[in-house]
Structures are given as structure tokens and as C-alpha cells.
Specification:
The protein has one helix at 95-101; strands spanning 6-8, 15-18, 23-30, 34-39, 48-56, 62-69, 75-77, 84-86. With 103 residues, it is mostly beta strands. Strand 4 (34-39) and strand 5 (48-56) form a beta hairpin.
């Protein structure tokens, strides 16, 4: 795996950029154990959050934990029906229609 060059103000509150890849703000930095980032993919789009933690595991090992929290737009207007609700609810029917027809 080749990691692209990183540039920017690489401290908490600063902004970073991965050449040809994501960029964002450094949300938390607690060396040497924790790094929290805002993750913006190339071309913009949603702003996810990534947290990387290094946890000592005995005297000769370190556990790397990576948490990726996607900020999804789960409630939106369906362009086919004009209904507003959870993206997966009803597969094209309004939530109120589903409730009215459910037994």
C-alpha cells in the first residue's frame, strides 16, 4: 500500500491534505495515541469523521483501532414520489402510506 504525501498544518485545529485524495480538519491530536480527522473525499461530498487510536498491548505490541463514522443523509425527499423520510423506508412509498396499509 502506497500512502500519498500529506501536507498542511498538521496539528489540532489545522487542515491537512492527502495528495490526490482526501482532505479535512484535524479534530483531535493526542500524541502518540490518538488522531481524529474530518475526512472529505476528493471533489467534496459528505464530511465523515475518522479516529485512529494506538493502544499498547503488552510490552511488545500495539493495537491499531480505526473508527470511521459516516455522516449519512438518511432522511431525504424521494425524487419519484416527493415523499420525505428515511431512504430505505417503503421503497418509493411515503411513510404515512406504509403506516396506513400495515396490519
Amino acid at each position: 500500500m502506497i500512502i500519498p504525501p500529506v501536507s498542511g498544518d498538521l496539528r489540532e485545529g489545522g487542515h491537512y491534505g492527502l495528495e490526490g485524495n482526501a482532505n479535512g480538519e484535524i479534530l483531535r491530536c493526542e500524541p502518540p495515541r490518538l488522531l481524529g480527522l474530518q475526512w472529505i473525499p476528493p471533489g467534496g461530498g459528505r464530511h465523515d469523521q475518522v479516529e485512529i487510536r494506538l493502544v499498547p498491548e503488552g510490552s511488545d505490541a500495539t493495537l491499531l483501532e480505526l473508527e470511521h463514522a459516516a455522516v449519512a443523509d438518511v432522511f431525504r425527499t424521494d425524487p419519484d414520489t416527493g415523499c420525505y423520510g428515511a431512504a430505505s423506508v417503503g421503497r418509493g412509498r411515503c411513510t404515512s402510506e406504509i403506516e396506513a396499509t400495515s396490519d
